[in-house]
Amino acid sequence: MAQIPDSVIEEILAKADIESVVGKYVSFTKRTGQNLFGLCPFHSEKTPSFSVSLNKGIYHCFGCGKGGNSIGFIMEIEKLTYPEAIRFLGEQYGVEVPVTSGGDNNGSEKKMKERVYALLTEAARFFYASFVGDVGKVARDYAAKRNLSKDTLRAFGIGYAPEGWDNLYQHLINKGYTDEEMRVSGLFTVSKKTGKLIDLFRGRLMFPIFDSFGKIIAFGGRSLGDEMPKYVNSPDSLVYKKQEHLYGLNFAKKAKSNQLIIVEGYMDTIAMHQAGITNAVASLGTAFTDSQLRLASRYAEEVVFFFDSDKAGQNAAIRAIRMMLKFLKKMSGLKIRIKIAYVPDGKDPDEYIRNNGKDSFATVVANAKDVDDYLFERAYNDNCDEDGKLDQYKYQDDIILYGSWIQDELRREKMATNAAVYLGANYKTVLNRMNEVMNSAIAEQAAADKRDLIRSEKDTVRQRVEENEGDEPVTQDVVADVRKTNSDIVYLQELKLFVLAVRLKELLATDVDREDVLRPGDFRGENMKKIIEFFLKNFDERYGINEALLINELSKTTLNGMPAEEVYLRACDQFNDSNNSDVRRDEYLMTVYDLRLKQIDGMERMIVKYLEAATGAKKDDLLLRYRKLNAYREHLIAKRDKL
User: Fold this and answer.
1) Bridging pattern class, strands 280-282 and 50-53
2) pLDDT of residue 444
3) Residues 6+ apart with CB under 8 A from 506
């Protein structure tokens, strides 16, 4: 088996000095001789215990015990395999790494991955041949309607999945691929009638999805008519985790720009590249994740996010900003500037570029706003009526919340100073309130990190699986195993969901879809399940829950070894409230969606674990449940993205 030559590894270690590699992720606070110190990026801490030895070329954390050289650091921080980390550093420091058959590890999983990569490449050939052949006229007509040139179609590998249940299946069978290899590729689903594999993509324009090295890892397919859904995407698979990739990055990184433009879809990205705006990427249909932000930071110092100008698009902007700023606080060494933009007149980038040209769009990009400026304007615009009258109470809630997200002290003070003018208050009062909310959020996150660390050490994957008790068809029969836990256990995010539900009062019945109402299955401990049952039984759709009645019920049980009413009252003090009903509702929905998505993650890990030993009907059942989980994940993400 060919390996990466030692000479290449030695050259990378010589050029990728430990200080420059680690310094992109860690802010060093102290230097003693040949040693640097800073906060560890691998665990939460207040006192720096992370050190870098310049003369030895290694790092070590005295808190969590992690250590190694530059390659080891990149493997840990970027979650890469050894060859991937070498290729990553080679690209960053100008060392050419030969493509070899050496790999991540020995064994069946590595061989299966190699087969799946080859299968996906063969599928791309099939889709492209279909596109240029007789069956692809409908797809070619659509591409012409969207003004896609032949060069663009060829560069992005655009293809066509013909109508029919098994065209790709039969092609791959004839090429020597097995059912098992096709099952884990993300290109097939199981027929409910026959139980056999059928093509996932049928009658769709096909977009190969590449990793940052240009390897095909998945596909997206767009309908060519009115059929819904408009887009079908490969589910997470053996070689693809969509939250860890950016569509078009393999092309955009060649632009060698310090800026990346983040748009929402394949067509926007392709249209921008065709127009000569070659630093555009897309987030693959998911809410932008911390992994994607870290990936973007490898190639750019600034990212400009484009969101739709309607309410849904602007709410998506707020969610993305909150997530990214929270991540940047944790990863203090990650230096990347975030800006927000939207296309005028409610158009998407593709349409705007076709109608107005590249130069006009460049002006839109140049006018993108820094995060704090955007948040300041949003707080005002969202709470100002058509006559220009500002609702100061709602504005106060929003601006203090947004200000608490800004880590830079000078920018936070600037926001407080400007806000004080509208509030008729002293800027120090506004700033102090922002700092209070920020510090409370930091304490909450530290507690959550500690709980997650303890849970990861003590709980097995199976123990973290939760039964999904949803009534909606999309959620039924998705999760079938119930985890055993301590009867009075409750986690921080569960407490937050409960507190937010109580605060919603009648809005829980009037402004929240039935499937999004909290349920016992959202909670792990038996005591908490019973509390939720009591809450739902005694909930009044006009007034919410009688809190005195609730406190009385809580006094009868315990949570985390403490009186339940004490745990609840502490949680009420810990989680900030808002007078803005829309903010309150959206915070509740974000929490319930995030909680359920974490449950799905746990169940998927368990299924992957059991798939290793499963055979026959049991294996088919596990694969079916895995696909249902992916469908439920897509359902939750779609709802979250509409907030």
Assistant:
1) unpaired
2) 62
3) 540, 541, 542, 543, 544
Q: Would you call 186 exposed, middle or buried from its count of C-beta atoms within 10 A (0-12, 13-18, 19+)? A: buried
Sign of CA dihedral 39, 44, 45, 51: negative
Token reading at 514 = 């039935």
Torsion of CA 516, 518, 520, 523, to 10 degrees: 110
Q: What letter represents residue 223's amino acid?
A: S
Q: How confident is the model at residue 449 (pLDDT cuts 50, 70, 90)?
A: low
108-240 CATH choice from 3.30.360.10, 1.10.8.420, 3.30.450.80, 3.90.980.10: 3.90.980.10
Query: What gap in Å lies between CA 251 and CA 296, rounded to an integer?
Result: 13
Dump pLDDT digits (tens) for 376-422.
999 999 898 888 899 988 999 999 999 999 988 999 999 999 999 99
Choosing among 3.40.1360.10, 3.40.190.10, 3.40.50.410, 3.30.1700.10, the CATH entry for 249-429 is 3.40.1360.10
Q: What is the DSSP string of 568-594?
A: HHHHHHHS---S-HHHHHHHHHHHHHH
Query: Is residue 610 scored above 70 in pLDDT?
Result: yes
Residue 30 pairs in a beta bridge with 37
Closest CA relative to residue 280, chosen from 371, 343, 216, 373: 343
